[in-house]
Amino acid sequence: IKNKLSLKKVDPGKDGGSYSVTITNAVGEVTSNDFAVTIIDPVKITQHPLKNGVTEGTSGGLSITATGGGTLAYQWKKYDAKKLLWNEIPGATSADLTFGSMSADDAGRYLCTVSNGASMLTSKYADLALHLLPTFKKEPRGASAKAGSAITLKVEALGFPAPNYQWQKLGEDGTTWEPLKNKTKPELIFSKLITANTGKYRVLASNAAGSIISGEVELIVFHAPVIAQRPTSITVNEDDSA
To answer: What is the 3-state secondary structure (H, E, C) of 81-142?
Structure first.
């Protein structure tokens, strides 16, 4: 007597529906009540969580996209590096893992399990980083030097990710700050000063969290006197001004 019905590679249209079983022997037969067999599609993760960075104090997080039959259930987990364990996050049971005000405690490595009663899949992990706005540890300082000499203006900014730099010089109109081409390092190096280097400078430090501008400083280039116009001979009458 076979007491098991095996369905292989089930198809919702073909195999789903109502079933019953009849048992017979030499004496007679008996038929069970009808019972339903529901075929649901297995879980598929179509978009795994992607690493992300959220600025401190702002809202953000991770998300996952999945498909499958029935009702999908989500459970986010965070990795504990000390205990080498993935711990379930209470209440994190939707496709989006969102932090209303990102803090250092929220940064870490996360993954999500998705199930529908018939199957379950675990996503790839993704890192969630805390982005910090740049701040200046060291502002640039003004300087003065003779033409032809070397001088360097320096700045240091903190933040995460590490800030990028862009030096700027005040334009001739006294209002517009113009970015200096290829001057994107913490040091603004003048290997041989010329008079055109005289002016006011500042630096823009920026990262994924935002940007900050340093205070402006002045660079003065001293140079030897140059006679722009030599005196010329004139003839004047006695008692006239000249």
So the answer is: CCCCEEEECCCCCCCEEEECCCCHHHCEEEEEEEECCCCEEECCCEEEEEEEEEEEEECCCC
